[in-house]
Specification:
By secondary structure, the chain is of the alpha+beta class. The protein contains four helices and six strands. The chain is about 55% helix and about 15% strand. A hairpin with a 2-residue loop joins β5 and β6.
Length: about 190
């Protein structure tokens, strides 16, 4: 038997990758407090391509309800302004030369519920990604069994492990969502 042909750690790594993307998406959701990571998902049309905001400017938090974005190239100020306005974060930059000030408004109940819905969309996309990894793993196991590289019993054991890892990853995504939801709804 060549049970070593199947690498369950690769599935774990891929599922953790999906959770990592989800975590980054959640960090981009506003909770009423200023955080530099709030602007991480924003990409700017710069120099003929798109690049992350942090590659064209420095983001800092001078006050609890204010972000400041220091753009390095004066010609990029309007592109950064446009990217922030179109980011669906509800922020309106105030331009002062190459510095953009972003006051963080209080979240009203309607906007909080909207952010929770966005978080639910993110978690659903994450769960789909995790399930795709599970499907790939199970398909690989079936192929190994067809080729005679693993036994039927090994197939069942590995399938159970894949399902357990999948369940754990989905539970972790749900925990992350619940924490973010509580953070968003906190007044």
């Amino acid at each position: 038997m060549a049970d070593e042909d199947y690498d369950i750690n690769d599935l774990k790594r891929r599922m953790q990758g999906a959770l990592s993307v989800f975590k980054n998406d959640l960090a981009g959701l506003r909770t009423g407090r200023a955080s530099a990571s709030l602007l991480d998902p924003i990409v700017v049309a710069a120099y003929g391509s798109t690049m992350p905001l942090n590659q064209v400017a420095t983001v800092s938090v001078p006050e609890p309800r204010m972000l400041s974005v220091q753009v390095w190239d004066k010609g990029m100020v309007h592109a950064v302004d446009k990217a922030i306005r179109e980011s669906n974060l509800g922020l309106n930059p105030i331009i002062e030369g190459t510095l953009l000030r972003l006051p963080i408004p209080e979240l009203n109940t309607e906007r909080r519920k909207e952010l929770v819905k966005i978080a639910h969309k993110y978690v659903e996309a994450t769960k789909v990604a995790i399930r795709h990894v599970r499907r790939d793993g199970l398909d690989e196991l079936k192929d190994l069994e067809k080729e005679g590289l693993i036994s039927e019993d090994s197939l069942r054991v590995y399938s159970d492990r894949v399902q357990k890892i999948t369940d754990e990853s989905i539970a972790e995504a749900d925990r992350m969502l619940a924490a973010k939801e509580q953070e968003i709804m906190q007044v």
